[in-house]
Amino acid sequence: MSERMSQELLRRLGLGAVARRQGPERLAFSLFLLGCAVIPGIGVANVVLGACLVTTLWWRFTARRAGEPFLGPFARTTPLHGPWGAYVALYVASAAFSTLPSRTLLEMKGLGTYLLLFFAMALLQDGDDVDLLLDLLRITTIYLVFRGLGQWVLGWNNLDKRVTGGLSTYMTYTGVLMVFGLLLLARALDSSRPRAGRLLDASAAALAVVATVLTFTRSAYLGFAAGALALLGVKRPKFLVALPVAVLLAFVLAPASVQIRAISSFDPSDPSTRDRVSMWKSGLAMVADRPIFGVGPKRTKVIYPVYRRPEAIEQAPGHLHNNMLQVAAQSGLPALTAYLVFCGVFLREAWRRTRGGPSASVSAGSLAAFVALFAAGLFEFNFGDVEVLMSLLVACALPFVGTTRIRPS
Predict the structure, then answer these.
(1) How far is CA 211 from CA 39, 181, 208, 224, 230, in A?
(2) Measured on CA atoms in the order 379, 383, 388, 393, is the torsion positive or negative?
(3) Beta-strand (E) ranges in 261-408?
């Protein structure tokens, strides 16, 4: 098949963003899209994104032989590059100066995950690229929802056996659904888009909320509500008065077991609530002992028994159930500072881009997804969940598509 024929076929399939690219660039872009779409299947996603990296190197070496700069689109910078680069550097330093460097340095094998932000900013060029990516994420969202609903019907409907949608944990499941669902909801609220597409996006987002509710994950309830509040505040301020009504209606329609779980959020005697408070106190003690580089990535669980308080319930929790405290404990206060600067810069820049322009809608969705995960992350460590982190980094790149600038040589 000739190049012209393949381009025409791709356009007819609705893949114009792929059709306008050629050779290794087209392959790298296609692998990137596929990798993002299969993020919930993290093993497959890692293989596909690894292939994307190799293909990208092939593309850039080919471009260099043709006289283009080797970095090409990777030379573009945004206000996020500095703080994110600083956080990654401090994360690596915390591994080198941890309580057991020989073990924590091995954790750096997953460092490629943190580069996804830069890849997304380089490979996504305009609104057509973003639309195609979100179309694929809509398919992924619908698949995850129906797989989760199937689990609920088959008996995954209690605290001992919760809906996971095929992912490793229910928290991972809800984290991915929050990001994808809010991105799609923002697109559904964009009146400039075709009605059929908006209806599909709204349906997928609504289903994502239903699936999240059925997981009994209280932090996800808070996160989705905070994200929706942020989104409506940006896109439809007049609808904010309806949000409490929607929450109340969802509560009334929810199964009795979900209602009881939601109400327990306000019970200070709830065992998991008390245990979290105990974890936070232990985490603060870790930070006090090692404030500069922390105990090292993945080390809080190992040394938790040393800091475990008498009232604690879990013997060795996997993390401290709070993003900021976990970052400070494992990587130190400088890394926490870089993380918070990254959060602040993203929120500022995304907010500015919601005010108008071609990226206003997707910027609102990215902002909402970020707020949702930050709010949920007050009670869990979703920032350290690979699938959730990958979804978040892709979302963080979207407001900057088409607005990046070339780094001076």
Answers:
(1) 18, 11, 5, 12, 21
(2) positive
(3) 405-406
Contact between 172 and 384 under an 8 Å Cβ cutoff? The reply is no
Percentages of the chain per state (helix, strand, coil), in multiples of 5: 75, 0, 25
Tokens for 50, please give them: 């690894």
CA 45/CA 337 separation, integer angstroms: 30
Alpha-helix residue ranges (DSSP H) falling in 13-100: 16-19, 23-37, 42-65, 81-96
CA 45, CA 68: separation in Å to the nearest integer? 30
HSE-CB of 187 using CA atoms within 13 angstroms: 31
Note whether 329 and 283 are within 8 A (CB): yes
Other Cβ atoms within 10 Å of 49 Cβ, number? 22
User: Each residue of 359-372: pLDDT tens digit?
Assistant: 899 999 999 999 99
Q: Which pLDDT does position 126 carry in this prediction? A: 92
How do the domains of the chain map onto residue ranges? 3-70, 79-115+122-268+318-406
Q: Flag whether pLDDT at 323 surpasses 50.
A: yes
Rg, C-alpha atoms of the chain: 22
Predicted pLDDT at 338: 98
The mean predicted confidence, pLDDT, of the chain is 92
pLDDT in tens, 129-138: 999 999 999 9
Query: What is the predicted pLDDT for the residue at 10?
Result: 67
Burial per residue of 171-204, b for 16 or more beta-carbon CB atoms within 10 angstroms, e otherwise: bbbbbbbbbbbbbbbbbbbbeeeeeebbebbebb
The verdict on pTM exceeding 0.85 is yes
